[in-house]
Each structure stands twice: as structure tokens, then as C-alpha cells.
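README: folding subset

This subset contains proteins for which both the sequence and a predicted C-alpha cell string are available. Records are stored as plain text. Below is the entry for Response regulator transcription factor (250 residues), shown exactly as it appears on disk.
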Amino acid sequence: MRILIIEDEPRAASQLQNLLNKSTFDFQLLDIIDTVEDAVLWFKKHTTPDLVFMDIQLADGLSFEIFQKIEVSTPIIFTTAFDQYAIQAFKVNSVDYLLKPIQQKELETALHKFTKSNETKVIEPVILKELLNSIQTPQKRSGILVKEGSGFVQIRISELLYMYSQDSITFGVTHNKRYIIDETMDQLFDSLDDTKFYRINRGQIVAKMSIQKIEPYFNHRVKLSVSNPRDQEFIVSRQKTGNFKEWMNK
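--- output ---
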């Protein structure tokens, strides 16, 4: 079985590869790709794989954009950290998915389902549109639970200046305090208003209101000055710089 992994989180890609190695299936890993742009180029240059594991949120956009740029006739198993509201669209449209963090048993079940199927599942345009609408529909959220002492308190989303991940812990920073948020960066960003918050790289999300200055930085990136930066540097990744500037202009 020739497998392609499209995933922008190195840790998630490594975990998936380890789970595949532990499975009872013989496979050949063709490549690991982390952007929409590189995925499109890969499909244009290579023979179609037998199966693709595809994350939804990539470094330069939603993976669904791949299908808008090129025809992909390979069966897809999406890997996602999106909440139940979005996953419902996958169930309705019979598109396979694995919820992160992926479990060995669930992977084995998905692979068995794939090997027993005689049909090549191609994502039809109408299904793609429904999935895109579901994923992109903002899930309004006004508050968030954060750790305080031995318990939790709720703070307003509007108080957060930025969020970041460090040593597998997610932090949220306000003007006065730093909180621990009991969610992954993927889960957190997926529930935020994307007109007010931008994920500038894998480990940082910044509120538009907190950005004070934007300066050119090495390798076509930009560096941000934000309110209450503490010990953090805010560098927009190269792949996201163009989209970030467009977002700031809105």
C-alpha cells in the first residue's frame, strides 16, 4: 500500500507514521507534505498513491483547497482536531476521518475499511462545498475556561492578547496575567473568530487588537510587536506572511 501523508504538524506526522509502523498493514510511505502548494505540485509530478492521510488545517490554508486546484482521485482519510459540529459533515457525506489524537485501534479500523472497499472514493464538488462551509462556519465563543489554582475560571475571549504553545502546554495572555488553557492550539484556534485572531505560526495565535507594529524580518517574514509580550517573539511564518497582511487590511 503506497501512502502519502499531508500534515503540517511534525509531531502529528511522526505519530501517524509510528501508528502505521505498528499496524498489521504493509505500506510504503511516499512522502510527508505540509502545505497546500506543495501538495498540488506533488500530485502533478508523481503517480497517484493508494491512500492519502490528510490534515485539514495546513501551513498555508485548508487542505480542501487542494481539490479546488487539481483533481485528486485517491481515497482520502482526513485527520482532524475539529469539534463535533464540523465532523457531522463528514458523517453525512460518508467521508472517512480520524479524530486527533489518533488511536491505534481507530487507525486499524480505517485501514480495514479502506482495504475491503472496492470503490475509489472521490470527493464530489457538492460534498466539498458542504465540508468547506461546515469547517469555515465560525463557532461563536465569548468565553474560555482557564486554569487558576486547583480549579478553573472563565475569562472573556476579548481579553486575550495572544496564545502560544510551549512544552505541549497552551497559554493565554491578557494585559495582566498568563493563564493555562486546557486545549490544544488546533482546538483553540478552530473555535475563535478568525476576523479577530490569526495563527501566525504553529505555536502562536495573535489578536488583531494586540498588534502594535509590523516590521520586515529575515527570509521574507514579518515580526510583530504586541501588547504584553513577556518573553515571546512573534514571527509570522513565511507561508502565512502574504495572507497575514491581507487579514490585517480587512
